[in-house]
Amino acid sequence: MTKNTRVPLMVSVLLAFGAWFSCLLMILCFSLSALRQSWIAGGIYICFAAVLAHACEKAKGIGPAGAAFLTQLSLAFSLLGKCLLIIGIAEIFDFQAGATFVLTLFVAVGSYRVFTQNTDRIFTIAGAGFVGMAWLVEVQMPSLTMECLGIFLFLISYVLFLLKKETLRSLAWGLLLVSAGPMLMMLEEQTRFAFSGVGQIFLGMGLVAVYVWQAGKQFCVSIAAAILVLVYLTNLGTGIGVALLCLGFIQKSLYHKIAGVFIFAVGLIWLYYHMQVSLLVKSYYLMGTGLILLSGYAWLKRGQNAR
Q1: 120 pLDDT exceeds 90?
Q2: pLDDT in tens, 243-280
Q3: What span, in angstroms and rounded, lies between the C-alpha atoms of 3 and 1?
Q4: Residue 216: its H or E element
């Protein structure tokens, strides 16, 4: 088996399980006995993960199975080492959520170029973002501000995806995960008033701005108006889902299509069950949604994208 040979899925799963299980055993043996000293073990694990990542890139003749095992082992030690480092330092200095967020953000930024695995970067950035959200909840940030912050993070991630830079792709996915935080937190409120019209207008204006930036001289006023109307008449979930679906078809990205379909379906279900209208009006919404999706698909597959 050459180095470029693809590892079978079951072998990859077993290698990943073995790597993570080995890492967890080491942590259980040496770290959990003294949580306040875990920052030392965390630092050691991070250094070990960096060595493994470097060895995986430079090693020759280890084969795809060996490379996959070293990659998973590096990922396990990196993520768990960062967690132990942050927990240990926060315990020693009795950090609150705000200080812990600054520490987590520092670790995320400092390790972004050292650990180049997309999974490592995404989870590290998302972890820092969710700690930041917990801090905002602790200081009792108003719901409208949290809602607009989530939309702003989504728009930033959307722009980063459109830039098509490989170094920014992990950052974009991490911010996309974090942007869901405020939406999930607000679900604890009364369902009918969980989201405001202000957030929908903000999202619509942001998507129109992105469309103007990408369309250039091919800008069409009717399309911009359709974006605003679609987002305002539905909710944030459906607007974000459609935007990700469009991005997936434009960039031919299966992951964006899957994320778009999932978010769109959740948003549509939420809208359907919380609309204060009759079933007949709801059926009109469903029919209109189908027509919009079919029209959007036909538009995206035109020209050079047509089969």
Answers
A1: no
A2: 998 888 888 888 898 888 888 888 878 777 777 767 77
A3: 7
A4: none
Measured in degrees and rounded to the nearest 5, phi and psi for residue 62 equal -85, -15
Cβ neighbour number for residue 188 with a 10 Å cutoff: 8
Residue 77: what residue type?
Answer: F
Quick check: 153 and 179 in contact, CB under 8 A?
Answer: yes
Between CA 16 and CA 169 the distance in angstroms is: 23
- For residues 184-188, average pLDDT: 59
Residue type at position 255 = Y
**244-256 as b/e: b if 16+ CB within 10 A:** bbbbbbeeebeeb
pLDDT score, position 10: 53
Distance of CA 127 to the CA centre of its chain: 10
Mean pLDDT for the chain overall: 78
Q: SS3 for 141?
A: coil
Name residues whose C-beta falls within 8 Å of residue 21's C-beta, 6 or more positions apart in sequence.
Answer: none
